Amino acid sequence: MRRLAALVFKAENQALTPEFLCLTLRCGAYMVRRDLTGAPAFCVRSFSGRLMGDAIDRDGAGKEDPPPLDEFSRRLDAMRGQPEEESPKGSGAAWGRAMRVSSELLAGLFVGALLGLGLDRWLGTAPWFLLAGIGLGFAAGLRNLSRSLKE
Amino acid sequence: MEAEAAKLIGAGLAAIPLAGAGVGLGLIFGNFLSGAFRNPSAAAQNQPTMLLAFALTEFTGLLGFAIAMIILYTF
Amino acid sequence: MFDQRADGPMEQFEILPIVDLHFGSIDISLTNSALWMIIGTAAITIFFFAATRRAAMIPGRIQSMAEVFYEFTFDLVRDTIGPDGRKFFPYVFTLFIFILIMNLFGLLPSWPGLAHELHTFTPTSHVIVTLALAMLTITIVIVYGFMKNGLKFLKLFWPSGLPLWLMPLLCLIEVISFLSRPLSLAIRLFANMFAGHVILKLFAGFVVSLIGTGSAVMLFGIAPFLGAIAVTALEFLVAALQAYVFAVLTCIYLSDAAHAADH
Question: Number of CB pairs < 8 Å for A and B?
Protein backbone atom coordinates (compact mmCIF):
# COMPACT_ATOMS: atom_id res chain seq x y z
CA MET A 1 0.00 0.00 0.00
CA ARG A 2 2.77 2.39 0.88
CA ARG A 3 4.59 1.49 -2.27
CA LEU A 4 1.49 2.23 -4.29
CA ALA A 5 1.13 5.59 -2.59
CA ALA A 6 4.77 6.36 -3.28
CA LEU A 7 4.27 5.38 -6.91
CA VAL A 8 1.22 7.61 -7.26
CA PHE A 9 3.08 10.46 -5.61
CA LYS A 10 5.99 9.99 -7.98
CA ALA A 11 3.72 9.88 -10.99
CA GLU A 12 2.00 13.05 -9.88
CA ASN A 13 5.30 14.76 -9.34
CA GLN A 14 6.38 13.79 -12.79
CA ALA A 15 3.12 14.86 -14.31
CA LEU A 16 3.44 18.30 -12.86
CA THR A 17 6.88 19.15 -14.18
CA PRO A 18 6.89 22.19 -16.45
CA GLU A 19 8.14 20.12 -19.38
CA PHE A 20 5.13 17.91 -19.17
CA LEU A 21 2.78 20.86 -18.88
CA CYS A 22 4.40 22.48 -21.85
CA LEU A 23 4.13 19.29 -23.87
CA THR A 24 0.49 18.88 -22.92
CA LEU A 25 -0.23 22.45 -23.90
CA ARG A 26 1.46 22.01 -27.22
CA CYS A 27 -0.33 18.76 -27.97
CA GLY A 28 -3.59 20.43 -27.00
CA ALA A 29 -2.93 23.33 -29.32
CA TYR A 30 -2.14 20.95 -32.14
CA MET A 31 -5.27 18.95 -31.53
CA VAL A 32 -7.35 22.11 -31.53
CA ARG A 33 -5.67 23.17 -34.72
CA ARG A 34 -6.32 19.84 -36.34
CA ASP A 35 -9.94 19.95 -35.32
CA LEU A 36 -10.41 23.51 -36.46
CA THR A 37 -8.53 23.48 -39.70
CA GLY A 38 -8.53 19.84 -40.69
CA ALA A 39 -4.75 19.91 -41.02
CA PRO A 40 -2.83 16.75 -40.12
CA ALA A 41 -2.13 16.57 -36.42
CA PHE A 42 1.62 16.64 -36.27
CA CYS A 43 3.21 18.55 -39.10
CA VAL A 44 6.92 17.89 -39.03
CA ARG A 45 7.50 21.12 -40.89
CA SER A 46 6.28 23.25 -38.02
CA PHE A 47 9.15 22.84 -35.63
CA SER A 48 11.99 22.00 -37.95
CA GLY A 49 14.23 24.43 -36.15
CA ARG A 50 12.79 27.82 -36.92
CA LEU A 51 14.36 30.60 -34.97
CA MET A 52 11.72 32.51 -33.11
CA GLY A 53 13.22 35.99 -33.39
CA ASP A 54 14.33 35.32 -36.91
CA ALA A 55 10.88 34.14 -37.86
CA ILE A 56 9.19 37.24 -36.49
CA ASP A 57 11.59 39.49 -38.26
CA ARG A 58 11.26 37.60 -41.52
CA ASP A 59 7.55 37.10 -41.71
CA GLY A 60 6.43 40.22 -39.90
CA ALA A 61 8.33 42.88 -41.73
CA GLY A 62 8.08 41.28 -45.15
CA LYS A 63 11.69 41.85 -46.23
CA GLU A 64 12.64 41.91 -49.86
CA ASP A 65 15.29 39.16 -49.84
CA PRO A 66 14.07 35.82 -48.51
CA PRO A 67 16.56 34.11 -46.20
CA PRO A 68 17.82 30.66 -47.15
CA LEU A 69 15.51 28.91 -44.66
CA ASP A 70 12.55 30.15 -46.68
CA GLU A 71 13.98 28.71 -49.85
CA PHE A 72 14.65 25.46 -48.05
CA SER A 73 11.09 25.09 -46.81
CA ARG A 74 9.80 25.86 -50.29
CA ARG A 75 11.93 23.12 -51.76
CA LEU A 76 10.79 20.82 -49.01
CA ASP A 77 7.16 21.60 -49.80
CA ALA A 78 7.82 21.00 -53.49
CA MET A 79 9.41 17.63 -52.75
CA ARG A 80 6.47 16.65 -50.61
CA GLY A 81 4.21 17.39 -53.55
CA GLN A 82 2.37 20.31 -51.99
CA PRO A 83 1.39 23.15 -54.28
CA GLU A 84 3.65 26.12 -53.72
CA GLU A 85 0.98 28.74 -54.21
CA GLU A 86 -1.82 27.66 -52.00
CA SER A 87 -5.17 28.88 -53.17
CA PRO A 88 -6.90 31.09 -50.63
CA LYS A 89 -9.58 29.16 -48.84
CA GLY A 90 -11.56 29.56 -45.69
CA SER A 91 -10.19 27.43 -42.91
CA GLY A 92 -12.95 27.70 -40.37
CA ALA A 93 -14.27 24.30 -39.51
CA ALA A 94 -17.37 23.06 -37.78
CA TRP A 95 -17.21 24.82 -34.42
CA GLY A 96 -16.00 28.15 -35.58
CA ARG A 97 -18.44 28.06 -38.44
CA ALA A 98 -21.41 27.17 -36.28
CA MET A 99 -20.59 30.11 -34.03
CA ARG A 100 -20.20 32.35 -37.04
CA VAL A 101 -23.35 31.63 -38.99
CA SER A 102 -25.89 32.35 -36.29
CA SER A 103 -25.14 36.03 -35.96
CA GLU A 104 -24.75 36.76 -39.68
CA LEU A 105 -28.49 36.80 -40.30
CA LEU A 106 -29.18 39.01 -37.32
CA ALA A 107 -26.49 41.51 -38.29
CA GLY A 108 -27.87 41.80 -41.84
CA LEU A 109 -31.38 42.39 -40.59
CA PHE A 110 -30.13 44.87 -38.01
CA VAL A 111 -28.20 46.96 -40.51
CA GLY A 112 -31.09 46.92 -43.00
CA ALA A 113 -33.58 48.01 -40.37
CA LEU A 114 -31.22 50.69 -39.08
CA LEU A 115 -30.66 52.11 -42.58
CA GLY A 116 -34.41 52.10 -43.22
CA LEU A 117 -35.08 53.84 -39.92
CA GLY A 118 -32.45 56.47 -40.67
CA LEU A 119 -33.86 57.15 -44.14
CA ASP A 120 -37.35 57.42 -42.68
CA ARG A 121 -36.23 59.94 -40.10
CA TRP A 122 -34.41 61.92 -42.76
CA LEU A 123 -37.09 61.96 -45.45
CA GLY A 124 -40.12 61.74 -43.20
CA THR A 125 -41.72 58.78 -45.00
CA ALA A 126 -42.96 56.99 -41.97
CA PRO A 127 -42.79 53.20 -42.23
CA TRP A 128 -41.90 52.55 -45.87
CA PHE A 129 -38.12 52.61 -45.85
CA LEU A 130 -38.09 50.66 -42.61
CA LEU A 131 -40.16 47.88 -44.18
CA ALA A 132 -38.02 47.84 -47.32
CA GLY A 133 -34.91 47.91 -45.13
CA ILE A 134 -36.08 44.91 -43.13
CA GLY A 135 -36.75 42.96 -46.33
CA LEU A 136 -33.43 43.90 -47.89
CA GLY A 137 -31.63 43.31 -44.60
CA PHE A 138 -33.00 39.81 -44.35
CA ALA A 139 -31.89 39.16 -47.93
CA ALA A 140 -28.44 40.52 -47.07
CA GLY A 141 -28.33 38.28 -44.03
CA LEU A 142 -29.13 35.26 -46.19
CA ARG A 143 -26.41 36.37 -48.60
CA ASN A 144 -23.94 36.57 -45.69
CA LEU A 145 -25.04 33.15 -44.58
CA SER A 146 -24.71 31.48 -47.96
CA ARG A 147 -21.30 33.06 -48.43
CA SER A 148 -19.99 31.88 -45.10
CA LEU A 149 -21.34 28.38 -45.72
CA LYS A 150 -19.68 28.16 -49.11
CA GLU A 151 -16.17 28.70 -47.73
CA MET B 1 -50.94 48.10 -14.39
CA GLU B 2 -47.80 50.14 -14.13
CA ALA B 3 -45.90 50.69 -17.32
CA GLU B 4 -42.69 49.37 -15.77
CA ALA B 5 -44.31 46.07 -14.80
CA ALA B 6 -45.91 45.68 -18.23
CA LYS B 7 -42.49 46.24 -19.80
CA LEU B 8 -40.89 43.50 -17.76
CA ILE B 9 -43.73 41.08 -18.51
CA GLY B 10 -43.46 41.89 -22.20
CA ALA B 11 -39.71 41.26 -22.18
CA GLY B 12 -40.31 37.93 -20.47
CA LEU B 13 -42.89 36.97 -23.08
CA ALA B 14 -40.49 37.93 -25.85
CA ALA B 15 -37.98 35.46 -24.42
CA ILE B 16 -40.35 32.51 -25.09
CA PRO B 17 -38.96 32.01 -28.66
CA LEU B 18 -35.76 30.81 -26.98
CA ALA B 19 -37.61 27.67 -25.88
CA GLY B 20 -38.73 27.01 -29.43
CA ALA B 21 -35.22 27.61 -30.73
CA GLY B 22 -33.89 25.14 -28.17
CA VAL B 23 -36.33 22.45 -29.27
CA GLY B 24 -35.55 23.15 -32.91
CA LEU B 25 -31.80 22.95 -32.38
CA GLY B 26 -32.19 19.67 -30.57
CA LEU B 27 -34.21 18.27 -33.46
CA ILE B 28 -31.71 19.46 -36.04
CA PHE B 29 -28.62 18.10 -34.35
CA GLY B 30 -30.33 14.91 -33.23
CA ASN B 31 -31.58 14.14 -36.71
CA PHE B 32 -28.26 15.04 -38.26
CA LEU B 33 -26.43 12.75 -35.88
CA SER B 34 -28.79 9.83 -36.42
CA GLY B 35 -28.43 10.30 -40.16
CA ALA B 36 -24.67 10.61 -39.88
CA PHE B 37 -24.38 7.44 -37.82
CA ARG B 38 -26.35 5.48 -40.41
CA ASN B 39 -24.29 6.74 -43.30
CA PRO B 40 -21.04 8.29 -42.04
CA SER B 41 -19.64 8.78 -45.52
CA ALA B 42 -22.43 11.17 -46.45
CA ALA B 43 -22.15 13.21 -43.26
CA ALA B 44 -19.45 15.64 -44.39
CA GLN B 45 -21.23 16.84 -47.51
CA ASN B 46 -24.45 17.50 -45.64
CA GLN B 47 -22.80 19.63 -43.01
CA PRO B 48 -23.43 22.99 -44.74
CA THR B 49 -27.12 22.19 -44.96
CA MET B 50 -27.19 21.40 -41.27
CA LEU B 51 -25.39 24.64 -40.48
CA LEU B 52 -27.91 26.55 -42.61
CA ALA B 53 -30.76 25.01 -40.65
CA PHE B 54 -28.89 25.72 -37.43
CA ALA B 55 -28.46 29.37 -38.35
CA LEU B 56 -32.09 29.84 -39.36
CA THR B 57 -33.29 28.25 -36.13
CA GLU B 58 -30.84 30.15 -33.99
CA PHE B 59 -32.02 33.31 -35.73
CA THR B 60 -35.51 32.84 -34.27
CA GLY B 61 -34.07 32.71 -30.79
CA LEU B 62 -31.77 35.68 -31.36
CA LEU B 63 -34.67 37.68 -32.77
CA GLY B 64 -36.67 36.95 -29.63
CA PHE B 65 -33.70 38.05 -27.53
CA ALA B 66 -33.29 41.24 -29.57
CA ILE B 67 -36.99 42.07 -29.21
CA ALA B 68 -36.78 41.50 -25.46
CA MET B 69 -33.81 43.88 -25.29
CA ILE B 70 -35.65 46.47 -27.42
CA ILE B 71 -38.69 46.27 -25.14
CA LEU B 72 -36.52 46.60 -22.05
CA TYR B 73 -34.26 49.43 -23.11
CA THR B 74 -35.96 51.58 -25.74
CA PHE B 75 -39.49 52.06 -24.45
CA MET C 1 -21.98 35.00 6.42
CA PHE C 2 -20.72 35.99 2.99
CA ASP C 3 -19.93 39.43 1.82
CA GLN C 4 -22.35 40.10 -1.00
CA ARG C 5 -20.85 43.09 -2.68
CA ALA C 6 -21.76 43.60 -6.33
CA ASP C 7 -24.28 40.81 -6.00
CA GLY C 8 -26.35 41.29 -9.15
CA PRO C 9 -25.29 39.70 -12.43
CA MET C 10 -24.90 43.07 -14.15
CA GLU C 11 -22.64 44.93 -11.70
CA GLN C 12 -19.57 43.23 -13.11
CA PHE C 13 -19.99 45.20 -16.35
CA GLU C 14 -20.07 48.60 -14.68
CA ILE C 15 -17.35 50.94 -15.83
CA LEU C 16 -15.91 52.76 -12.85
CA PRO C 17 -13.26 55.48 -12.88
CA ILE C 18 -10.15 54.71 -10.87
CA VAL C 19 -8.13 57.86 -11.56
CA ASP C 20 -10.12 60.94 -12.57
CA LEU C 21 -8.58 62.71 -15.53
CA HIS C 22 -10.14 65.46 -17.59
CA PHE C 23 -8.69 66.87 -20.75
CA GLY C 24 -10.67 70.02 -21.38
CA SER C 25 -14.25 68.81 -21.57
CA ILE C 26 -13.23 65.29 -22.54
CA ASP C 27 -13.30 62.64 -19.84
CA ILE C 28 -10.18 60.50 -20.15
CA SER C 29 -10.32 58.94 -16.70
CA LEU C 30 -8.49 55.71 -16.15
CA THR C 31 -11.35 53.24 -15.78
CA ASN C 32 -11.32 49.59 -14.78
CA SER C 33 -11.77 48.69 -18.47
CA ALA C 34 -8.66 50.65 -19.39
CA LEU C 35 -6.79 49.19 -16.43
CA TRP C 36 -7.48 45.63 -17.58
CA MET C 37 -6.51 46.47 -21.15
CA ILE C 38 -3.21 47.84 -19.82
CA ILE C 39 -2.68 44.74 -17.67
CA GLY C 40 -3.41 42.49 -20.66
CA THR C 41 -1.11 44.39 -22.97
CA ALA C 42 1.65 44.40 -20.38
CA ALA C 43 1.28 40.66 -19.86
CA ILE C 44 1.45 40.01 -23.62
CA THR C 45 4.52 42.22 -23.97
CA ILE C 46 6.33 40.59 -21.06
CA PHE C 47 5.45 37.13 -22.33
CA PHE C 48 6.78 37.72 -25.81
CA PHE C 49 9.86 39.54 -24.56
CA ALA C 50 10.62 36.59 -22.32
CA ALA C 51 9.96 34.20 -25.19
CA THR C 52 12.19 35.92 -27.73
CA ARG C 53 14.93 37.13 -25.40
CA ARG C 54 17.03 34.03 -25.83
CA ALA C 55 15.76 32.63 -29.09
CA ALA C 56 17.31 29.23 -29.61
CA MET C 57 17.29 26.62 -32.32
CA ILE C 58 15.78 24.18 -29.85
CA PRO C 59 13.04 26.18 -28.17
CA GLY C 60 12.66 26.29 -24.44
CA ARG C 61 9.35 26.21 -22.63
CA ILE C 62 8.23 29.79 -23.04
CA GLN C 63 9.62 30.00 -26.53
CA SER C 64 7.73 26.96 -27.74
CA MET C 65 4.50 28.31 -26.27
CA ALA C 66 5.05 31.52 -28.16
CA GLU C 67 5.83 29.52 -31.29
CA VAL C 68 2.55 27.67 -31.00
CA PHE C 69 0.64 30.96 -31.05
CA TYR C 70 2.83 32.34 -33.78
CA GLU C 71 2.57 29.41 -36.15
CA PHE C 72 -1.12 28.95 -35.53
CA THR C 73 -1.80 32.50 -36.64
CA PHE C 74 0.75 32.37 -39.42
CA ASP C 75 -0.82 29.26 -40.95
CA LEU C 76 -4.22 30.86 -40.64
CA VAL C 77 -3.14 34.01 -42.45
CA ARG C 78 -1.31 32.12 -45.18
CA ASP C 79 -4.12 29.65 -45.79
CA THR C 80 -6.82 32.29 -45.92
CA ILE C 81 -5.31 35.32 -47.64
CA GLY C 82 -2.65 33.57 -49.69
CA PRO C 83 1.01 34.39 -50.21
CA ASP C 84 0.49 38.16 -50.29
CA GLY C 85 -1.20 38.07 -46.90
CA ARG C 86 2.11 38.29 -45.09
CA LYS C 87 1.91 42.00 -44.59
CA PHE C 88 -1.27 41.53 -42.60
CA PHE C 89 0.24 38.99 -40.28
CA PRO C 90 1.30 41.51 -37.59
CA TYR C 91 -2.18 43.00 -37.49
CA VAL C 92 -4.01 39.67 -37.32
CA PHE C 93 -1.57 38.34 -34.73
CA THR C 94 -1.96 41.40 -32.53
CA LEU C 95 -5.71 41.26 -32.81
CA PHE C 96 -5.85 37.56 -32.03
CA ILE C 97 -3.56 37.72 -29.01
CA PHE C 98 -5.19 40.87 -27.66
CA ILE C 99 -8.73 39.47 -27.84
CA LEU C 100 -7.59 36.10 -26.50
CA ILE C 101 -5.88 37.67 -23.48
CA MET C 102 -8.77 40.06 -22.84
CA ASN C 103 -11.21 37.13 -22.88
CA LEU C 104 -9.04 34.91 -20.72
CA PHE C 105 -8.10 37.55 -18.15
CA GLY C 106 -11.79 38.25 -17.69
CA LEU C 107 -12.11 34.73 -16.30
CA LEU C 108 -9.58 35.31 -13.53
CA PRO C 109 -11.19 35.34 -10.10
CA SER C 110 -11.17 38.68 -8.30
CA TRP C 111 -9.08 39.00 -5.18
CA PRO C 112 -11.52 38.61 -2.25
CA GLY C 113 -12.25 41.79 -0.35
CA LEU C 114 -10.96 44.11 -3.05
CA ALA C 115 -12.82 47.29 -3.96
CA HIS C 116 -15.35 47.02 -6.75
CA GLU C 117 -13.19 49.20 -8.99
CA LEU C 118 -10.41 46.63 -8.98
CA HIS C 119 -12.49 43.52 -9.63
CA THR C 120 -11.68 41.45 -12.67
CA PHE C 121 -13.16 43.03 -15.76
CA THR C 122 -13.61 41.84 -19.33
CA PRO C 123 -13.20 44.73 -21.78
CA THR C 124 -14.50 42.57 -24.65
CA SER C 125 -17.87 42.29 -22.93
CA HIS C 126 -18.56 45.87 -23.95
CA VAL C 127 -19.90 46.40 -27.42
CA ILE C 128 -17.99 49.66 -27.82
CA VAL C 129 -14.64 47.86 -27.50
CA THR C 130 -15.51 45.08 -29.93
CA LEU C 131 -17.13 47.51 -32.35
CA ALA C 132 -13.97 49.63 -32.31
CA LEU C 133 -11.86 46.56 -33.16
CA ALA C 134 -14.29 45.54 -35.93
CA MET C 135 -14.32 49.08 -37.35
CA LEU C 136 -10.52 49.04 -37.41
CA THR C 137 -10.62 45.82 -39.43
CA ILE C 138 -13.21 47.14 -41.88
CA THR C 139 -11.31 50.41 -42.30
CA ILE C 140 -8.18 48.47 -43.18
CA VAL C 141 -10.22 46.35 -45.62
CA ILE C 142 -11.67 49.38 -47.40
CA VAL C 143 -8.41 51.35 -47.53
CA TYR C 144 -6.37 48.36 -48.68
CA GLY C 145 -9.07 47.32 -51.17
CA PHE C 146 -9.03 50.72 -52.86
CA MET C 147 -5.24 50.92 -52.70
CA LYS C 148 -4.73 47.52 -54.28
CA ASN C 149 -7.59 47.37 -56.80
CA GLY C 150 -8.49 50.99 -57.36
CA LEU C 151 -12.09 51.37 -58.43
CA LYS C 152 -12.23 47.69 -59.29
CA PHE C 153 -12.74 47.14 -55.58
CA LEU C 154 -16.37 48.09 -56.22
CA LYS C 155 -16.76 44.86 -58.20
CA LEU C 156 -17.22 43.31 -54.78
CA PHE C 157 -20.72 44.78 -54.83
CA TRP C 158 -21.44 43.87 -58.44
CA PRO C 159 -22.14 40.14 -58.77
CA SER C 160 -21.64 38.77 -62.25
CA GLY C 161 -23.70 36.41 -64.39
CA LEU C 162 -27.18 37.60 -63.51
CA PRO C 163 -29.94 39.32 -65.51
CA LEU C 164 -29.56 43.08 -65.67
CA TRP C 165 -32.90 43.96 -64.08
CA LEU C 166 -31.87 42.17 -60.91
CA MET C 167 -28.60 44.04 -60.63
CA PRO C 168 -29.62 47.18 -58.69
CA LEU C 169 -31.45 45.09 -56.12
CA LEU C 170 -28.56 42.70 -55.69
CA CYS C 171 -26.12 45.57 -55.51
CA LEU C 172 -28.14 47.07 -52.69
CA ILE C 173 -28.21 43.73 -50.90
CA GLU C 174 -24.46 43.35 -51.28
CA VAL C 175 -23.87 46.82 -49.87
CA ILE C 176 -26.03 46.05 -46.84
CA SER C 177 -24.26 42.74 -46.48
CA PHE C 178 -20.89 44.50 -46.52
CA LEU C 179 -22.06 47.04 -43.97
CA SER C 180 -23.29 44.29 -41.69
CA ARG C 181 -19.84 42.73 -41.44
CA PRO C 182 -18.35 44.89 -38.70
CA LEU C 183 -21.58 44.71 -36.78
CA SER C 184 -21.72 40.95 -36.96
CA LEU C 185 -18.08 40.72 -35.88
CA ALA C 186 -18.64 43.06 -32.95
CA ILE C 187 -21.96 41.62 -31.80
CA ARG C 188 -20.72 38.04 -31.89
CA LEU C 189 -17.73 38.65 -29.64
CA PHE C 190 -19.60 40.97 -27.32
CA ALA C 191 -22.67 38.73 -26.99
CA ASN C 192 -20.65 35.61 -26.28
CA MET C 193 -18.52 37.21 -23.58
CA PHE C 194 -21.44 39.09 -22.06
CA ALA C 195 -23.80 36.10 -21.95
CA GLY C 196 -21.10 33.82 -20.58
CA HIS C 197 -20.26 36.15 -17.73
CA VAL C 198 -23.91 36.73 -16.87
CA ILE C 199 -24.51 32.97 -16.70
CA LEU C 200 -21.41 32.46 -14.58
CA LYS C 201 -22.47 35.18 -12.18
CA LEU C 202 -26.01 33.80 -11.96
CA PHE C 203 -24.78 30.32 -11.02
CA ALA C 204 -22.32 31.74 -8.51
CA GLY C 205 -25.05 33.93 -7.06
CA PHE C 206 -27.29 30.88 -6.57
CA VAL C 207 -24.51 29.14 -4.66
CA VAL C 208 -23.92 32.13 -2.40
CA SER C 209 -27.57 32.73 -1.60
CA LEU C 210 -28.25 29.02 -0.99
CA ILE C 211 -25.29 28.77 1.40
CA GLY C 212 -26.40 32.01 3.00
CA THR C 213 -29.63 30.37 4.18
CA GLY C 214 -27.61 28.35 6.67
CA SER C 215 -30.07 25.45 6.92
CA ALA C 216 -30.32 22.08 5.16
CA VAL C 217 -31.21 23.96 1.98
CA MET C 218 -27.47 24.55 1.71
CA LEU C 219 -27.11 21.08 0.19
CA PHE C 220 -29.00 22.23 -2.91
CA GLY C 221 -26.11 24.61 -3.50
CA ILE C 222 -24.07 21.72 -4.89
CA ALA C 223 -25.99 21.68 -8.18
CA PRO C 224 -25.35 25.31 -9.18
CA PHE C 225 -21.78 24.95 -7.92
CA LEU C 226 -21.16 22.08 -10.36
CA GLY C 227 -22.97 24.10 -13.01
CA ALA C 228 -20.65 27.04 -12.38
CA ILE C 229 -17.61 24.78 -12.76
CA ALA C 230 -18.93 23.40 -16.06
CA VAL C 231 -19.76 26.87 -17.35
CA THR C 232 -16.28 28.08 -16.40
CA ALA C 233 -14.74 25.28 -18.47
CA LEU C 234 -17.04 26.14 -21.35
CA GLU C 235 -16.13 29.80 -21.03
CA PHE C 236 -12.45 29.02 -21.50
CA LEU C 237 -13.33 27.24 -24.73
CA VAL C 238 -15.58 30.09 -25.86
CA ALA C 239 -12.92 32.68 -25.03
CA ALA C 240 -10.35 30.95 -27.23
CA LEU C 241 -12.88 30.16 -29.96
CA GLN C 242 -14.18 33.72 -30.20
CA ALA C 243 -10.67 35.10 -30.55
CA TYR C 244 -10.06 32.52 -33.27
CA VAL C 245 -13.31 33.36 -35.07
CA PHE C 246 -12.52 37.08 -34.96
CA ALA C 247 -9.10 36.42 -36.46
CA VAL C 248 -10.51 34.09 -39.14
CA LEU C 249 -13.15 36.58 -40.21
CA THR C 250 -10.60 39.38 -40.30
CA CYS C 251 -8.50 37.20 -42.61
CA ILE C 252 -11.49 36.38 -44.82
CA TYR C 253 -12.46 40.02 -45.19
CA LEU C 254 -8.87 41.00 -45.96
CA SER C 255 -8.77 38.21 -48.50
CA ASP C 256 -11.94 39.61 -50.11
CA ALA C 257 -10.26 42.99 -50.35
CA ALA C 258 -7.09 41.50 -51.82
CA HIS C 259 -8.90 39.46 -54.47
CA ALA C 260 -11.82 41.80 -55.22
CA ALA C 261 -10.78 42.41 -58.81
CA ASP C 262 -10.34 38.73 -59.63
CA HIS C 263 -13.92 37.60 -59.68
Answer: 34
